[in-house]
Structure formats: C-alpha cells, structure tokens
Amino acid sequence: MEDYLYLSEGESEDSTLLAIYVKISNDECVVSLAFCHLEDHRFLIGQFIDSSLLPNLETAILQLGARECIVPSGLLSSDTNVSKLKSSDKPGRLQYLELVLERSNVLITELDRAEYFTNDCLEDLNLLLKQNSTSTSIDVPNLFHAKSELAEAFLCLGAIFRFLRLQSNEALAHTFTISCFSLDNHVRLDSAALNALHLLPTSSETESKYNSVYGVLNHCRTPQGQRLLAQWLRQPLTDVARINERLDLVEAFVDDSSLRNTFHETSLRRVPDLPRLARRLQMSKASLQLDCV
Fold first, then answer.
1. HSE (CB half, 13 Å, CA atoms) of 290?
2. 237 phi and psi, to 5 degrees?
3. Distances, alpha carbon 250 to alpha carbons 190, 246, 254, 260, in Å
4. Is the pLDDT of residue 3 over 60?
5. Parallel, antiparallel, or unpaired for β 16-25 and 68-72?
C-alpha cells in the first residue's frame, strides 16, 4: 500500500496517512489519532475531546494535511444527514464522521477491525524510531507510559504500521521520530474558514495563481519549498517566539537583496527534491538516469 502514497514524479503534495478512532465516553466524543509523514519520517499521536459534530477532528485533519485516512471497519455511519449520535447502535459510530472526512477531501479506507485492534506496535515502533534522537519528544523508555495514557492512539499507530508494512522494510529502520499532536500549537481552522480565506487552491479553480493566498505567495524554487509553504498556511502559528523567529528570517532576506537573489535565482534552481529522492533511494526505486543526473 505504500506505493499509493509515494507520489509520482512532479507532484508536490506530501505523502501522508492518518488513522483515527472515535468513541463515546460520558456523552463526549474521544478522538484518538496517529499520523505518518513518509517524507519527513515522523509520526504524531494524539487524543482530544470533541463534540458530536467533530469540529476538532476537522481542524486536526486540515492542520496535518492528511491525504488518506484509515478507520476500523464499521466505524463509519451510513447516514451523514443526522446530527445526533446513535445511542443504540455500535459504540463510537458517529453520524458526522464520514461527512467530516469527505468535506476535508480525504480518501477514506476501512481496515479490518482485527488489523486495527492488535496491541503489538511497541516492538515495531522501537525498530522504526531513531536512537537517541533529540527531535523525538517521546523518549523510547517512556513509550510504555505514553502507551497507557494514549492507548487508542497507539492502536491507530499500529494500524498504520500494518497498512503500510513499515516494519517489514529494513531501509526504514531507525529513521523515524515520534511526537505528540496538539491542536493548541496552531490557529484552529476548519474547511469553511480555509475556503473563505482562499488560503489554498482548489481543484475547481482556474490556473490563475491569484485565486489563493498560496498562489500569490508561492515563489518557491523547489517542490519541498512549495510543500512547506502549504503546510505553514494550514498551520498558522500561535507561539510569539516562533512567529518572531520567522519574521527575523524574512527581514534578513528583505534587507539583503543580493543574498536573496543568489538563493532564488541561482542556488535553489540546482536543488532537487531531496526528501522525495531519498525516499526513492530507500525504496530502491531511484533511476540513475532520471534521479541522479
């Protein structure tokens, strides 16, 4: 299944996969999720409370930029036009889940429940995680503690492992990082706000770059730069220190036009899509003629 997520040459979208599980607890929806970014080799896990309309889940999907979402079979509702939770049907089956996923333009894939609820992901996770990585916010010795706190999120992570068969690929051993996902790290946007602000282009728009904020701002020379710009537009910062850090970098390039022109007109023109090329090499799919010349 990983072939589906490894995009063809020339595409600029990220290769991402989301797994979610939603259950009802004390009249609230508890959403657990795991996220895999294949090019950046990182995992995110998280859990949060949501209402029956699942606005927080919609925000999470947009922030993460997920292209595909896997759910356990039987979780999706067959009727998305009713606003209430089913109280007499399967636990955790929500009326609005499928609607939120479709509104977010996410490909929905149901995974057999036996594959989803297999509690054996820690061994595979230890195989995939970088050793002594400073960018990993969950230390490997604390994984057992984190697993007890985020049990359903780790089930989602295990579902991603089995869906992509990551643990069977030796080239991916000790290359991933893992951290906790929090909705509070960025401004919360739903699909209505994203469309109203015209932040990102839609498939129905014309080729004019002025139809979206992304089109106006996109002067990126590299595909990885285009992907990062789209990610930043989906994830507006709330931390003042990080905002000022970005503004300082912008100011440096604005003040030094010579440096800016050197990077934009000369240096970056020679930079290939390194994350995607590295991924192709790991998967033994690189072509010497096409990728290395």
1. 10
2. -70, 150
3. 27, 6, 6, 10
4. no
5. parallel
- 135: tokens are 């960018």
Q: Which amino acid is it at 60?
A: A
- All domains in the chain, ordered by first residue: 2-185 (3.30.420.110), 198-277 (1.10.1420.10)
**How large is the average pLDDT for residues 136-140?**
53
Q: What residue type is 281 in one-letter code?
A: L
Phi first, then psi: give them for residue 28, nearest 5 degrees: -125, 155
With bands split at pLDDT 50, 70 and 90, how would you rate the model's confidence at 64? very high
Look at phi and psi of residue 26 and say left if phi exceeds 0, alpha if psi is from -120 to 50, else beta: left
Which tokens in the block code for residue 124? 């595979």
Cβ–Cβ < 8 Å for 23, 31: no
- pLDDT tens-digit series, residues 208-248: 777 899 999 999 999 889 989 998 999 999 999 999 999 99
Give the CA radius of gyration of the chain. Answer: 20
Bridge partners of 48, per DSSP, are: 31
Q: Are 63 and 44 in contact (CB under 8 A)?
A: no
Q: What is the pLDDT of residues 71-128, one digit of tens each?
A: 998 888 544 333 344 444 444 446 788 889 988 889 999 998 888 877 678 888 888 8
**Which contiguous run of DSSP H or E holds residue 68?**
strand 68-72
Tokens of 6: 């490894």
Give dist(CA 251, CA 77) in Å, integer.
50
Tokens of 213: 């904020």
pTM, two decimal places: 0.77
**Per-residue b/e over 202-230, b at no fewer than 16 CB within 10 Å?**
eeeeeeeeebbebeeebebbbbbbbbebb
